[in-house]
Request: fold
Amino acid sequence: MGATVKTKTPKAEWSGSITGRDGYIVAKALAYAIEVIGSLPERQQEWSDREEMKKIFEAAFSEPLRAIVADSAHVHLNPDAAPLAGGLLAEWRAAMKARAAVKSS
Reply:
């Protein structure tokens, strides 16, 4: 029998902004991952990863951003589901459309 090899989880090496939207993209990625893991059959759920993702998501991002990206992930992955954030996503989308309209005029 071979020896057991223990490996460490690689550390994330990330500093500064790459895209100018890094925080938003990371928040959105976490929201999607949390939603997808939660939708898997229980025996396939990576429970500890999901719980740690939720801790990072809640600690690193503001409530409005969390609500918007969590709602967006939920609606995209569950098209027949009701929004989670009580219409906050719809309000945000309307504000973004209004902002774009002002920029284009």
Observations:
- The two ends are 72 Å apart (CA to CA).
- The helical segments are 22-39, 47-60, 63-77, 88-104.
